[in-house]
Amino acid sequence: MIKLLALDLDGTLTTSKKEITPRTKEVLQQCIARGVKIVLASGRPTVGVWNVARELELDKLGGYILSYNGGCIIDCSTGKVVAQEAVPSELVAPVCEEAKSVGGVPMSYNSEGILTECAQDQYVQLESRTCKIPVIEVENLGKAIDFEVNKILVTMEPSQMPRLEEHMQQKFAGKLSLYKSAPFFLEIVPLGVEKAQSLAALLTILGLTADNLMACGDSWNDISMIRLAKYGIAMGNAVPEVKCEAIWTSEDNDHDGVALAVEKWVLSDNTAQ
User: Fold this and answer.
1) Which of 262, 211, 234 has its CA nearest to residue 29?
2) Is 208 helix (H, G, I), strand (E, B) or coil?
3) What is the percentage of the chain residues whose pLDDT exceeds 70?
4) Residue 114 pLDDT more than 90?
5) What is the DSSP track for 139-193?
6) What is the model's pTM?
7) Mean per-residue pLDDT of the chain
8) Fewest C-beta in 10 Å: which of 72, 76, 122, 222?
9) Closest CA to 116 of 10, 126, 84, 220
10) What is the side-by-side strand order in the sheet with 185-190?
11) Looking at the domain 4-84+193-272, which fold is it?
12) What CA–CA distance (Å, rounded) separates 115 from 103?
């Protein structure tokens, strides 16, 4: 029986306009009423997920935020951190410098917004709009980050992303984990941190197993949780690698893909199949 529902946000739960449709909200309320806990599993910073959590009333009804691609887990009812991991402080400046050396634009986050050296970069601005947080331009990002961070995000034109990804893998293999969350975003997180690893930890805390987990996603950084969950669901707009790992492919995120998946696998008791 499904007791935990992990939902990626961008490209999955939210539409291309970064909205949750009325139908999807209604279906998720029905899901919660059945006792299913919702986990908003995203590469976004925690502050960029809270608005979605509140829109779904998870702060009142219960649920979890899994932010930074798994770097931090928050209990929505209490606002307390359940678990988190930080990028080793000695690697922060080298990551920023190596990313810049091949034309990438690194950014990270503090309590006030996004920190970057290139505030006008189109993908930095996209992250700002998506998370609804401001951009703070700094002279040197590596020096500005003098506090613990859960993730460094690097932007690059999609055509050049393979070059950036290869370079960063070569420099930080065995030290950090890297995942693409979009054709123009490379997530850099503590070694071993991924959505599946964090969800597995949460399942243990809740006394559940992967047999109780349904996960919906669309992008490369969702593959691990799609593999982990007994009920791994791909959106119609998902990349081929996600669809290959899923047990079922729904409609796309602009046509209530999450709602259809929940109706099929949770509300119809289809898990007996």
Assistant:
1) 262
2) coil
3) 98
4) yes
5) S-HHHH--S--S-EEEE--GGGHHHHHHHHHHHHTTTEEEEEEETTEEEEEETT-
6) 0.88
7) 95
8) 122
9) 126
10) 135-137, 114-116, 105-109, 152-155, 185-190, 176-182
11) Rossmann fold (3.40.50)
12) 17
215 phi-psi bin (left φ>0, alpha ψ -120 to 50, beta other): beta
Helix, strand, coil percent content, the chain, rounded in steps of 5: 40, 25, 35
DSSP state string for 63-93: -EEEEGGGTEEEETTT--EEEE----HHHHH
* pLDDT band at residue 271 under the 50/70/90 scheme: low
Lookup result for tokens 């690059």: 156
Confidence of residue 269 (pLDDT cuts 50, 70, 90): low
Query: Strands 152-155 and 185-190, how do they pair?
Result: antiparallel
Starting at the earlier edge strand, list the strands of the sheet with 72-75. 81-84, 72-75, 64-67, 37-41, 4-7, 213-217, 231-234, 248-249
CB 107 within 8 A of CB 184: no
Confidence of residue 268 (pLDDT cuts 50, 70, 90): confident
Tens-place pLDDT, residues 173-230: 999 999 999 999 999 999 999 999 999 999 999 999 999 999 999 999 999 999 999 9
Q: Where are the domains of the chain?
A: 4-84+193-272, 89-190
Q: How far apart are CA 264 and CA 123, in angstroms?
A: 35
User: CB within 8 A of 57, min separation 6: which ones?
Assistant: none
Give per-residue pLDDT as tens, 117-148: 999 999 999 999 999 999 999 999 999 999 99
**Phi, psi at residue 263, to the nearest 5°?**
-60, -40
How far apart CA 56 and CA 64 sit, in angstroms, is 11
pLDDT given for residue 240 in this prediction: 97
